[in-house]
Each structure stands twice: as C-alpha cells, then as structure tokens.
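Researcher: Here's my situation. A collaborator sent me these components and asked whether they could plausibly form a single complex. I don't have experimental data yet, so a predicted model of the whole assembly would be a useful starting point for our discussion.
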Amino acid sequence: DAGVIQSPRHEVTEMGQEVTLRCKPISGHNSLFWYRQTMMRGLELLIYFNNNVPIDDSGMPEDRFSAKMPNASFSTLKIQPSEPRDSAVYFCASSLSAASYEQYFGPGTRLTVT
Amino acid sequence: GNSVTQMEGPVTLSEEAFLTINCTYTATGYPSLFWYVQYPGEGLQLLLKATKADDKGSNKGFEATYRKETTSFHLEKGSVQVSDSAVYFCALSESNTDKLIFGTGTRLQVFP
C-alpha cells in the first residue's frame, strides 16, 4: 500500500488567499484525522471523520477552516482566507476505526502564508 | 480529561548510551498506549504499542511497558544510534472515540 498521500507537500501563499490541502487515506481505513503541527503549539487535532462523517471538529480554530470528506478515499482541508498565523505543517492520518487505534500519518503539507 | 505528560527535551546522548524517555498518563478506563517517532521532515510513525497493563511493546530495540500502578509508559533503548535522532511522542487512546491524545514530544539528539 502507498500509505497516506497528501498534496501538495509544500504550499506558499499570500495572506488572504484560499488554500486547499488534500489527503488520500489508506484504502480500507474508515477514520481520517487532520492535525496541525507548530513549534509553539505542538501537534493539534483539528477534525476527524468516521465513515466520511465529521465526528469531532472541536479543534478547528475558526470559521476560516473547513474540512470535507466526499468519499472514503479523499478529504480536503480548506483555509479561506489564509493568515500568516496559519503557517504550519498539516498532517493527515487514517486508521481502522476502533480496531486498534493505530493511526498512519501522511508526510504532511508545509504551509507558509506570507 | 485524559492527558499525557512527557519529559521535556532535548535529550542529548552519545552513541551507544542508554535511553529513557519518561511518559505518564491520566485516563479513565483502560486506554491503549503508544510511542510514535517523527524523523526530520516526515510524518509520525508508530514505533510500538501496548494494549493492557503489564504488556511490553517493542520494536527496533526500543521497549516500553504499560505500568498501570504508576500510570507510566517509559520508552527505553539499551544502545542508541545516531539514526535514532528524532522526536518521540507518547500517546493514549481515548475511550469511546477513535482519537489519540498525544504528548508534547521529546526531541532526542544522538552524537557519534
């Protein structure tokens, strides 16, 4: 299996622009997680889905952030409008729901907002 | 609520030294416990896990034992290598959800 796939790997954008991050989970996994990692705040869970349904979005920082999972093999995290404080590495992870709790992480997208 | 506390880093060691990274937890019920490793520029990878009290997880020379009486899951390795330099995260499963609660991470630096 190719593992969790994220794109793009790097994104540089200007403040105010819309940013869309993409994730393809491991085939057969039915839970998907979006995390943000910064030096100041560490690793933060933003939102997670189970069977394509958002279960817990309490970590989404504000309304500028939204996430969707239209099918079992694709998810997006959108920031509109972006701000410099959104600069971080965003990780997607997937797992077999409730089976073992093991989460498999993608390589991350490094976002820089100038 | 559930939480994980890790020792602050960085931990700096010479090659072949013994490693301990402390992790304690607070949880209701009987969580599973995990150690993840993050190499520079990469995502987190599962290193080892333990699902019940007294279980020992092991992988690549690393070990950790689930100690319910001390609510701990300390990571150990008898002889570290330069290639072990990374950030190590302790985590626990949260009951009735699919979520993991992560610690803040401990950076390990191994010098030749």
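Model: Some features of this prediction you could bring to your collaborator: Chain A touches chain B through 24 residues (CB under 8 Å). Residues 5 and 24 of chain A are 5 Å apart (CA to CA).
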